[in-house]
Amino acid sequence: MPTVLQGARVFTGDQVLEGHAVVIEDGTVRAVVPQAEAPTGATVHTLPGDTLLAPGFVDVQVNGAGGVLFNDTPTEEAALAIAAAMRTCGTTGLLPTFITDDAARMREACEAAIAATARPGGGVLGIHLEGPFISRERAGVHVPSFIRTPDPRDLDYLTALPRRFAAHGGRVLMTLAPECVDDATLRRLVTSGVVLSAGHTAATSERTSQALNAGVRGFTHLFNAMPPVMNRQPGPVAAALTHDDAWCGVIADGVHVHADNLRLLLKVKPPGKVFLVTDAMPPVGTPVTSFTLQGRTILRRHGRLETEDGTLAGADIDLTAAVRHCVHALGVPLEEALRMASLHPATFMGLHGHRGRIAPGHRADLVLLMPDLSVHSTWVGGQPKSKASH
After folding, report:
1. What CATH number does residue 65 fall under?
2. Distance of alpha carbon 271 from alpha carbon 143, whole angstroms
3. What is the pTM assigned to this prediction?
4. Cα distances (Å, whole numbers) of residue 141 to 129, 135, 348
5. Is 69 annotated as a binding residue?
6. 225 and 167 in one domain?
7. Which CATH number do you get for residue 21?
8. Residue 232 among known ligand-binding residues
9. Is the peptide bond between 132 and the residue preceding it cis, with omega within 30 degrees of 0?
10. Residues 92-111: pLDDT tens digits?
11. 141 is known to lie in a ligand binding site
12. Are 308 and 366 in a shared domain?
């Protein structure tokens, strides 16, 4: 029997509709129709009239949430717990992110993510490997002793991963520094199905452009963990701005990137090429004031997460807060801010055929937003999963 959600305005991913109903069956959207044309005999849920039903958010960079850190506990249960914690904040699908660590631990995380991706309704969409093939010069909080260049064993394992994740509809995202990996290796990873993103890099703009031509698809938390644009050394940021096809993930929390840099990015890039990430850490969704990351204490203070010496260590934000920041601080139209949290990251990862829109054939992964852009409820695969206000 189908389920009908009605009463709220509906943002389809393309436009906002008034007086329409969303028909859900077998975990997918069957139709979006005028309310008077909703099927009879369905289970009807009438939503508050001042709310907005939108596609559920997709976050491709989540280190942890709800007190759980994937690097600390690279298990299926941890990945699912992180997804459950972020669901109350509007995120219905995410990539648990595993930062630079030793090879055995990285493989453990990949195996756990495969198992979590196979869990129906779990909200895990694959894995994001942030490192270990990154620049020591731009390591940030990544442990330098774990940074390395890829060897044949690494490549054999990594190039087999996309097929294994794809069996469950999942994807593999890898952040690497273009100056640390040659073009032949980049092409091999891309051919296997790994989505490559440049990050934690000190590459020149020329080297970054070469890597984009070799298949690197986008940039991880653009502006962060990379050098600033200089007059004779424009670096990776200039390559991101000047390559129309390159995707740019950004942390829009008012801490990681100055508002004028985000406005510049949105002005320069073609529509649809900028998307939101959280880079979230375990404190998100909890009241805790500190946690441990690979043996170092990370403090929640001054509206940010940082080491004792002040180095940023991930972010204390969820995607709903990032959407609010885009709308209120940057002047981004609400519809585009919502796309930046749903359709655009889904498209970046090749998931746009069934995520990021409320349209027939798409998964019924939905978020219901209050007028102040806080979360009222979420659905994953058509099943209500939370009722919260954030």
Report:
1. 3.20.20.140
2. 36
3. 0.96
4. 15, 12, 26
5. no
6. yes
7. 2.30.40.10
8. yes
9. yes
10. 999 999 999 999 999 999 99
11. yes
12. no
